[in-house]
Amino acid sequence: MGRTRRTALFTLLAPAVLIATAQDPQDSTGSLPIPESPEEDKKLPNGKSQKNAIAKEDHEQALKDANNLIAVAQQLRDELQRAGDFVVPLSSVKKTEEIEKLARRIRGRLKD
């Protein structure tokens, strides 16, 4: 193989080799690199996980909101039953808005 042919082959293969080695997530030992976590789980003074404490508080608040949602929905049902066929009390409309607000708040906590 001539010198120009080897140079041309090297010129063609070098970028492919560099790209292949750059995309290989394994190091020379064959193990995957340990991902660095930007935020470590902080501990509270009592030794418990801060994330777990926040999750527990969110869960308790979601339960309170769900209980409020049930109470408001029952009040709305009672108002509508007493109101009759063609009358919608203004307080019922306000209760539907409160139900929507509580439902959004619960959904937001569950998504996070």
Structure description:
With 112 residues, this protein is an all-alpha fold. It has a domain at 42-112. Helix content is 69%, strand content 0%. It is built from three helices and no strands. It has helices spanning 3-23, 50-83, 90-111. The longest helix is centred in the middle third of the chain and has 34 residues, at 50-83. The radius of gyration is 31 Å and the shape is elongated. 1% of the residues are buried.
Task: Label the overall shape.
Answer: elongated
Please tell me the overall pLDDT.
Answer: 77
Radius of gyration from the CA trace?
A: 31 Å
The SS-based structural class is mainly alpha
Provide the β-strand percentage band: under 5%
Order of helices and strands: HHH
- Unreliable sequence segments: none
Report the strand count. 0
- Please summarize the sheet with the most strands: none
Secondary structure: helix percent? 55-70%
Terminal CA distance: 63 Å
Specify the number of helices: 3
Keywords:
112 residues; 3 helices; 0% strand
Please provide a brief summary of the model:
The chain is mostly helical. 69% of the residues lie in helices and 0% in strands.
Secondary-structure map:
Elements: H1 3-23, H2 50-83, H3 90-111
Helix pairs in contact: 2-3
